[in-house]
Design a protein that fits this description.
This protein is mostly helical. It is built from two helices and no strands. The longest helix is centred in the first third of the chain and has 24 residues, at 4-27. It is elongated. The two termini are 25 Å apart.
Length: 65
């Protein structure tokens, strides 16, 4: 199991990747052949960030006592 610091570090790394992908997408012209590939990568990175944030913010303890 990963520690909270390791998860936060991975979130930070993925956030940098997301920013890089967003800037690359912004610099492309419309209907560029690379646009679909970069958009797919961006979607995957955003999904990974969201999943890690869910793990980081997961409730602790039992739901039913």
């Amino acid at each position: 199991m990963r520690t909270e610091n390791q998860i936060q570090s991975k979130i930070n790394e993925l956030t940098l990747q997301r920013r890089s992908l967003e800037s690359r997408l912004a610099s492309l012209t419309e209907n560029s052949p690379q646009q679909d590939n970069l958009q797919a990568q961006l979607t995957r990175v955003e999904d990974m960030i969201m999943m890690l944030e869910c793990v980081l913010n997961a409730p602790v303890g039992r739901y039913h006592a």
